[in-house]
Amino acid sequence: MSNKKTLTPSTASAATADFDLGGSSSSSEPLIANAATYAIDAWGDGFFAISDAGTVVVRPDRSPSREVDLLEIVEGLRDRGYGSPVLLHFGDVLDTVLRDLRAAFDKAIEENGYQGAYQGVFPVKVNQQRCVVEDVGRIGAGLGFGLEVGSKPELLAVLALTVDQPDRLIVCNGFKEDRYIEFAMLAAKLGRTIVPVLENLKELELVLQHAERIGVRPKIGIRVNLNTRGAGRWATSSGVKAKFGLSLAEVLKAVDILRDRGMLDCLELLHCHMGSQMQDIRLVMAGVAELARIYTELHRLGAGVRYIDVGGGLGVDYDGSQTNFAFSRNYSLEEYASTVVYRIQSICDDRGVPHPTIVTESGRAMVAQQSILIFDVMGSNRFEPHDIPGDLEQLRGHGDEQPARPLIDLFEAWQRISPENLLECWHDAQSARAEALNLFSLGYMSLEHRAEVERIFWTLALRARELSVGLDPLPEELAELDDLLTDVYFCNLSVFQSLPDCWAIDQVFPMMPIHRLDEMPTRRGTLADLTCDSDGKVDQFIDREDVRRWLPLHDLVPDRPYLLGAFLVGAYQETLGDLHNLFGDTHAAHVRVDDAGRWWIEEIIEGDTVREVLAYMQYDSAALTRAIRGECERSVHRGKMTARESREMVQAYENGLSGYTYLEGDSD
């Protein structure tokens, strides 16, 4: 990204910077440059790459011999009548990720001579979609993986999905009322391996009451609040002030209660929450060490502990930088597994305690990579240079009105701007524009002159950005021009529904075009969604060093779709959505890939219709249709429309109720 086009104020085609690497006409250079621009080789982890045709391909097992083209899949869905936005699930990617997790812990156990076992569990809250949970269950069954639930509805769903699987570990977290614990004890009666994790002492009393009534000897877990805190966005979710878990004093009280009941052997699992998206391996080390110390003490007190559940926290490298950054992690999967195994083993060995079964709840790392949101761009607002008058006389408005002083100062700054006085002219332009806006608000400047101020200012800004290329050091005021001069690309999606973390917690996901990558992007843009809310936008993007305020994009071509993808969105986004402006769930397609790289659609979950989202808000679609039909009949009676027009109006209304909540093309 070292070379940029030189701006010629009179030519619109040179309005923005180019992102090519410059110099050569080789057809492969755009592919290589775009791979670097979007960092796909880093965050993609071998699952995603750019093809020779300039499209993004998915490699379910990281093998180039088994890859599928995202653009081909989207076009295939359109042929089936399903347009974008659409969420693509790749169960084969999920399969590889889960096997990687299993292999990392198996390797760490073997290398360290660890005498215990490993069991991963998938927290259903991370992605509650039935097809995803079923995929995790199917794949995880052969890997010894269990499931974690955090509510009564999740427990009821998981119990039905794990029929005849008594060895499947089910960990029950979250606040638990009477019925929740009753269902857990009934599951134990069926022979399930189910462990309710105590979040407070009241839950212990409920467990003991239902266990006695139903006639089971329960497996019990305790979540303890560690002193060790996490980092980044979720740092406050851990530590002594965490939402869930018992203090050490409460843990000892629970031990006393169980001992008095003769049930201390039922305390089998020790659990903690270190924090989500743990970016620093040193914090993982500290948290695991503290938990292991508590484990050995519980063993000394006579508890029957045999599981140590380190919770979630295994990070996802969203930007591919492998750094101690909120959207990355400074460790590999293998280092994480080795750290957890070694820390637990060394502390248990010091105290002569048998090695426990290690449980992880790494939901984010399990399912993030298998989902991609594809959406189309509908149009854009662009910054373009304008033709600037050649002299002051041409700045006059109607009649003989003289240009105001700020407009003259701005025009003179435009005439003087050069590499030698660049910063000075930019400062003059900023000051002149501010004065002009103030004059207009007081009624001392015409609309024509106000518009001329805007034309000159933004054209000068474009020129200043071009002249600033290569400055070292680059003044801070000029560095801000990249953010100031970004286009806005309007996209067929709702951020609140499909990418809620972008809006709520400033989460950064990898985003890029899924085609035209054999061309260099020549625009810098932010993304705006369909909602009428000013927060319905994405203006933070991955950057290998920090967060970038714009995304490299291509010029839009009339009558040619432009498709973007948001990657690594499989964790949390699908069930946190909000029906802002009544935009509902998108279509979701579950894609499978055979060994030869041929894809097929295993299942399509159709997105919400207008009728469905209205029903969520207690609107009766039949009553709405009756109201429109009645109004049409009255219009026919008054002679304002014909009977045919009335019928067409009602039919169009009913079709609208049955349609997709997002913008629909002719093929949808």
Percent range for helical residues? 25-40%
Structural class: alpha/beta
Whole-number average pLDDT?
A: 90
The CATH class assignment of the largest domain is Mainly Beta
State Rg: 30 Å
- The assigned CATH architecture of the largest domain is Beta Barrel
- Beta-strand percentage range: 5-15%
CATH homologous superfamily assignment of the largest domain: Lyase, Ornithine Decarboxylase, Chain A, domain 1
Major sheet: 10 strands, mixed
Helix count? 22
Number of strands: 23
What is the total domain count?
4
CATH topology of the largest domain, anyone? Answer: Lyase, Ornithine Decarboxylase, Chain A, domain 1
Distance linking N and C termini: 38 Å
Low-pLDDT windows of residues: 1-25
Overall, the morphology is globular
Structure notes:
This protein has 668 residues and is α/β, with parallel strands linked by helices. It folds into 4 domains: 1-113 and 362-383 and 486-607, Beta Barrel (Lyase, Ornithine Decarboxylase, Chain A, domain 1); 114-361, Alpha-Beta Barrel (TIM Barrel); 392-480, Methane Monooxygenase Hydroxylase, Chain G, domain 1, CATH 1.20.58; 620-658. It has 22 helices and 23 strands. The strands form 4 sheets. Strands 4, 13, 14, 15, 16, 17, 20, 21, 22 and 23 form a 10-stranded mixed sheet that branches. A hairpin with a 5-residue loop joins strand 1 (48-50) and strand 2 (56-58). It is globular. Mean pLDDT is 90; it is low at 1-25.
